[in-house]
Amino acid sequence: METFSKLFASLLRFVYHCFDRVVIQGYLPLLTRPEHIVYFFRDVHGIYPITKQALRQRTCDYQRWVEAFARNHCIPLQWPNPDMKKKGLRQEDCVRPYLLAMERRRRFGVYFIFKTMEPGPNFRSCQPKYPTQDPRYRIIKRQWSRYTHFYFYIRDEALGPMILCVGSFLPFSTRYWINGHSLSQGSSSGKASVSTRMTMPSCPSRIRKPCKPRPIASVLRSSAPAWIIGLSSWAPNFLRRIAPPSPYAVTIP
Question: Residue 59 sits in which domain range?
Answer without folding.
Answer: 16-239
